[in-house]
Design goal:
The structure holds two protein chains of two kinds.
Chain A (H helix, E strand, L loop, with lengths): L3 E4 L3 H13 L3 E6 L14 E4 L12 H10 L4 E3 L9 H10 L2 E2 L4 H8 L1 H10 L15 H11 L3 E9 L2 E6 L5 H16 L4 E5 L5 E9 L5 E13 L2 E7 L6 H17 L5 E8 L5 E7 L6 H8 L3 H9 L16 E8 L1 E2 L5 E2 L2 E2 L2 E3 L6 E5 L6 E2 L6 E9 L2 H14 L1 E3 L5 H8 L2 H4 L7 H5 L10 H40 L1
Parallel strand pairs in A: 1-2, 1-4, 2-3, 4-5
Antiparallel strand pairs in A: 6-7, 6-8, 9-10, 9-12, 10-11, 11-14, 12-13, 14-21, 15-16, 17-20, 18-22, 19-21
Helix pairs in contact in A: 2-3, 3-4, 6-7, 11-12
Chain B lengths: L7 E6 L3 E7 L2 E2 L10 E4 L4 E5 L2 E11 L2 E6 L2 E9 H12 L8 E3 L4 E6 L6 E2 L4 E7 L2 E6 L4 E6 L6 E2 L4 E5 L1
Antiparallel strand pairs in B: 1-2, 1-8, 2-3, 4-5, 5-6, 6-7, 7-8, 9-16, 10-12, 10-15, 11-14, 12-13, 14-16
The chains are: A alpha+beta, B mainly beta.
Chain lengths: ~500, ~170
């Protein structure tokens, strides 16, 4: 086992990784940046590496600087978490050059699966259904239009190097192609420095189902069932559950085995997720593969009882996978709610600030993964997620009821959050009966936040009362000041 | 200074507009069957009750006659006017005599990544004016009126604070 680990990340995932690593007796190094010098994750490190102002932007995106720090501190391994450099083949390959253990896939696997076109080809050759799509990288508008016409609208254009919901546009008619092509190309260039696209048939309102897999370096691999992540806004997940209501055991096994076969094709030997789209007839298609730990991994931990970070570290150092497929089973249900600092009344716009107060109920079935506590500042330069609430139960109905109770008892003051949104989803008949899909927010919610009748009126009454009270205070102060001014005048006359 | 010691009517306007009666610095609890309510002040919050429904609200901000209240995690911003001044304002707006705030302000702190229009551009209500990056997301800042773009007060790459004026409108 390794003795030391640098976490090239921040926030809740840095804390999540640090907790498991320390439990395993590994010394944890975290990086302190001046953007959030008092961040909570630093309290979970054995060693803090403090950095002065970095002229080259974020340290979490700077491969050479990370390599330099790791070597300077004599640390054996780097864990990239999610986001930042977690899917950078360059970091993985530089680690290999320098003899640092990268907790993740090989640079080759990251590169292959990170390229949407190549990933699609491998999936197809592994026997996984894929959607009709372009077979070559598209780099000009003429080809884009040709492919879109051939596939038939609606189509989706995706940046080959894309991810995280960025660099994607749905085209419903030929007339929209030109404008949307320009938008995607610009986004792809800006975000990924690669303007090439692929075009695929777009399925209306699919469900998003993903399979968690875990593999070692000796050809042993298991899948840890599915997560359903269909509650999305602009291709970004807001809430997830495991298992999914719509998968039969047969489908679960079939998708799991296909995901494992895909991993075998690319010699994959770490934690990973194969994502699928499910159409309204429950036919599934390959979407993409994520070659890192995912934000929503706790719900899988909750239903399987397996610490995925521990497994990820163990297989990375070369241990054999002790778990076999027959050892794992689904116990109960789990839901994750992503509490983001966003204004749901204003189209989920980011709302950073200072958390004046943040309190969650204390239940043994509630897990809170958060990089913040009361009094902490949410900096505007990072993503907006402030906490993940993971709620477990014996069955789905109980888990939903518990989630509603948790949300009602959660107190967050000082910033706007997605809490009113979850109230609205958890009480919605389409969520309760499990028929929801990725169009849920646009199609099924009149407004994306829960609001009781008379709520605004109650707020108006309070506003007016506060206003009247303020006026009264000012008036009485004025009288008071008048009299004290008079008193001091009298005094000055006397002396 | 508004003298409030006698009965008065106020208009509290947010998404919707509410006309409420007051007396001696207090909102008069209404006793009509239709919208009966009571109001109670606790330590740092207020509770409004309609029949069996209770709402606990907290005042997030109070500046002159603008008040922001949070109820159940939702934020409500109101402008408070006496009924008389509300009606006066309404008629001025109707007759185009009251110029609305014509500046485009940053709705959140962030970085300007692209300016999509130039000084002198004619824009419609809803035209995208610039892109503001905040928390890893590109946000389009849209024009809230039809008109001509005046002075652009920011540059691409510039970091802006919340409510900072980005563009003047003519």
């Amino acid at each position: 086992m390794i003795k030391s680990l640098l976490i090239a990340n921040r926030g809740e995932i840095a804390i999540r990784i640090a907790s498991t690593a320390r439990k395993m007796g590994i010394k944890v190094y975290c990086i302190q940046t001046n953007r959030e010098a008092n961040a909570l994750y630093l309290e979970y490190a054995d060693e803090k590496i403090s950095l002065e102002e970095n002229p080259n932007g974020s340290i979490f995106l700077n491969v050479e600087e990370l390599i330099r720090l790791t070597k300077e501190c004599g640390v054996e391994a780097i864990h990239p978490g999610y986001g930042f450099l977690s899917e950078s083949p360059y970091l993985a390959s530089r680690c290999k050059d320098e003899g640092i253990l990268f907790i993740g896939p090989t640079d080759k696997a990251i590169y292959t699966m990170g390229n949407k076109g190549m990933a699609r080809n491998i999936a197809e050759s592994s026997g996984i259904p894929v959607l009709a799509g372009s077979t070559t990288n598209i780099t000009n508008f003429k080809d884009a239009k040709k492919w879109a016409d051939k596939i038939g609208y609606p189509v989706i254009m995706k940046a080959v190097a894309g991810g995280g919901g960025k660099g994607m546009r749905i085209v419903r008619a030929q007339e929209e192609m030109e404008l949307l092509y320009k938008l995607v190309v610009n986004e792809a260039k800006a975000a990924f420095n690669d303007a090439s696209l692929l075009i695929e048939k777009y399925i209306e309102s699919p469900k998003h189902i993903e399979i968690q897999i875990l593999a070692d370096q000796y050809g042993n691999a298991i899948h840890l069932f599915e997560r359903e992540c269909s509650i999305q806004r602009k291709h970004q997940k807001l809430m997830e559950e495991a298992p999914s209501m719509v998968l039969s055991n047969e489908m679960r096994t079939q998708m799991g085995e296909m995901a494992l076969y895909l991993c075998k094709q690319i010699d994959y030997h770490t934690l990973g997720t194969v994502e699928f789209l499910l159409d309204k007839d429950n036919r599934f298609y390959f979407l993409e593969m994520n070659t890192r730990v995912q934000v929503e991994h706790p719900i899988t931990e909750c239903i399987t009882g397996i610490d995925l970070i521990e497994q990820q570290i163990r297989v990375a150092v070369g241990e054999k996978l002790k778990l076999r497929q027959q050892d794992v089973s689904i116990e109960g249900w789990a839901i994750e709610l992503r509490i983001n600092a966003e204004d749901v009344q204003s189209d989920f716009s980011p709302a950073p600030g200072i958390i004046e107060k943040m309190e969650f109920p204390d239940y043994n079935y509630l897990r809170v993964d958060s990089g913040f506590v009361s009094g902490k500042l949410i900096p505007p330069v990072f993503d907006s997620m402030i906490a993940k609430l993971i709620i477990c139960g014996d069955n789905r109905q109980q888990t939903i009821e518990r989630a509603i109770d948790v949300i009602n008892k959660t107190v967050i003051k000082g910033i706007k959050t997605t809490i009113p949104f979850f109230k609205s989803v958890l009480n919605h008949p389409d969520f309760i009966d499990g028929t929801y899909n990725t169009s849920f927010i646009t199609d099924k919610l009149n407004k994306p936040f829960y609001q009781e009748e008379d709520e605004e009126k109650a707020a108006a009454i309070i506003a007016l009362q506060a206003y009247l009270k303020e006026n009264q205070d000012i008036e009485s102060n004025l009288v008071h000041e008048d009299s004290s001014a008079w008193a001091s005048k009298m005094r000055s006359k006397l002396f | 200074m508004i003298r409030l010691k006698k009965n008065k009517k106020f208009v509290v306007s947010g998404e919707n507009t509410f006309t409420l009666k007051t007396q001696d610095y207090n909102v008069l609890s209404s006793r009509t069957r239709k919208d009966k309510f009571t109001l109670q002040k606790n330590d740092d919050n207020y509770m409004v009750s309609f029949n069996n429904e209770h709402f606990v609200g907290e005042v997030a901000e109070l500046k002159q006659n603008k008040c922001t209240v949070i109820v159940n995690g939702n934020t409500y911003s109101f402008t408070i006017d006496t009924e008389a001044s509300f009606q006066r304002k309404e008629s001025l707006i109707k007759n185009n005599q009251l110029k609305l705030n014509a500046n485009v302000e940053a709705p959140m702190p962030g970085k300007i990544t692209e300016i999509l229009i130039a000084q002198g551009s004619q824009v419609e209500k809803g035209t995208a004016l610039l892109l503001l990056e905040a928390m890893k997301m590109q946000n389009q800042i849209l024009s809230h009126q039809t008109g001509t773009v005046g002075k652009i007060r920011v540059r691409t790459g510039e970091s802006v604070m919340v409510n900072q004026v980005l563009i003047e409108m003519e």
